[in-house]
Amino acid sequence: MWTTRVWTRRGAAVLAVSTLAMLLGAHGASASPKVVTKKTLAPGVVYQQINDSATPLRMYVLTFDAGTAATIDDVLSAPQIGTFQRTSSMAANAGALAAVNGDLNDWPGRPTHQYVQDGMIMQAGSKPGISFGYRRDERGGTIGYNPLRISATDNATKTAFSVSSWNTDAPGSDQIVGYSWYGGKYEKPSTNQCSARLTTPTALRWNAKSNGTGRDYKVESVRCSSTAMVVNSGTVVLSAKMVGNGATFIKGLKVGGTVHVGWANDSPGAMDVVSGSSWILKGGVIQYAAGCNLDKCRRNPRTVAGVTATGRVILMTVDGRSSGSVGATLYELGVRMKALGAVDAVNLDGGGSATMWVKGLGVVNHPTDSTGERAVSNAIVILPGTDTAEASPLSPRAAI
Fold first, then answer.
1. Closest by CA position to 70, among listed 99, 100, 37, 96
2. Which 3-state string (H, E, C) describes 110-121?
3. Fewer Cβ close by (within 10 Å): the C or N end of the chain?
4. What pLDDT score was predicted for residue 16?
5. What is the mean pLDDT of each run of 10 residues along the chain (400 residues)?
6. What are phi and psi for residue 257, nearest 5 degrees?
């Protein structure tokens, strides 16, 4: 198997390319992959460009080894949902070594799927997607269909209620939704709702088995009104329709009491969760057939994130829509990621959004938009050291 651990040794790189060629040959393709550029960005962080003249295909690969001084993080285009920014700008603002574009984008400047940053829920998303949660200890990650489970618990009565969405939708019948400052002006409580504003959050704390995080909030106000409740910085608002089970829970909260709000998604130890559209590799098994004729299977520019059995993260961007690089199908993407050593991989945003930026080199791939690099809502970055914005959760509490 083509493992990127040996790319720092010249002879092993030749073996890696040979292994990829054999694997592609086994799938009926004639390949001649060649490493044309290699650069060590920091100990354990390597960038390479690999060309396959037979397809033809240009691939840009970042590998991040567990246990290094560098860290991996996800970033939004702005502190609040509602804007777009180029991947290169987000990376430079973060002081990153390298970056790729992240999840698909919805209007008005938000990831399509669930998104957690530094332990804080940014949004539940319009659909769960396939999540990539990377552990805070930088020693592994989880890729899979792991929807966010958000709950609010009245600490006085020990009554828990599922929060159906976060900074995404209005409440439906018998539902509660959550809003925070991160939702910006586009996602906020509406009129004619029962709402509770929660303030003064305690320190972040792990759930049992480090499956997500949560914190306690003080109940500042509770009201059912035709006037929308305002969400301020540092506060959370829980809202429901004027009648129903959600309204009953909210009306039962006492001002001055506390509510625990937490999330989990079966990505143990993860503080950051970014998601994509398709599971490319699952337990080493390619998830799409070579003959897949769905629209999403066609050749396109791609960005993909994968993890190996030893915890290494692999980020790859593939050029497409040109004679020099025709793009990859989802099946071919699985073949390439498996050859790189990934056992699980998720397809992130692609097409004109597909971008890889490397410090000192700039945008290394060839974005296909006529105006050049496309502005997107989020990115995955590799930082040269500790992520100073990420909290250190306290010891686990009972499962939510």
1. 96
2. EECCCEEECCEE
3. N
4. 45
5. 33 42 45 90 97 96 92 95 97 98 95 95 92 88 95 97 95 97 90 97 94 96 96 95 98 98 95 96 97 94 97 97 97 97 98 98 96 96 92 80
6. -80, -175
CA distances (Å), origin 278, targets 99, 172, 174, 294, 394: 20, 28, 31, 12, 34
* Euclidean distance between CA atoms 73 and 266, whole angstroms: 18
Cβ atoms of residues 65 and 44 within 8 Å: yes
Partners of residue 379 on adjacent β-strands: 75, 101
Distant-in-sequence contacts of 86-91, Cβ < 8 A, 24+ apart: 86/355, 86/373, 86/374, 86/375, 86/376, 87/355, 87/356, 87/357, 87/363, 87/373, 87/376, 87/379, 88/355, 88/357, 88/362, 88/363, 88/373, 90/378, 90/379, 90/381, 91/357, 91/359, 91/379, 91/381
Task: Output the pLDDT for position 71.
Answer: 94
What's the chain's Rg over C-alpha atoms? 22
Tokens of 235: 């506060």
**What is the spatial distance between Cα 359 and Cα 141, in angstroms, rounded to a whole number?**
24
Instruction: Tell me the two tokens of residue 188.
Output: 């906020």
Q: What residue segments make up the domains of the chain, in order of their start?
A: 64-144+270-383, 149-264
pLDDT score for 148? 96
User: Residue 340's CB: how many other CB atoms inside 10 A?
Assistant: 28
CA contacts within 13 A on the Cβ side of 299: 13
**Tokens 């962080």 correspond to what residue?**
45
Residue at token pair 């949004």: 123
Q: Counting Cβ atoms within 10 Å, is residue 107 exposed (0-12), middle (13-18) or buried (19+)? A: exposed
Tell me how far apart the 2 most distant CA atoms of the chain are, in Å.
71
Quote the Cα angle for 20-34-98, to 5°: 95
The amino acid sitting at 361 is L
Residues 74 and 381: beta-carbon distance below 8 Å: yes
Question: Which residues pair with residue 357 across a beta bridge?
Answer: 99, 363
pLDDT at 388: 86
DSSP 269: T
350-354 long-range contacts, Cβ below 8 Å, gap at least 24? 350/300, 350/301, 350/302, 350/303, 350/320, 351/300, 351/301, 352/301, 353/101, 353/104, 353/105, 353/303, 354/101, 354/301, 354/302, 354/303, 354/317, 354/318, 354/319, 354/320
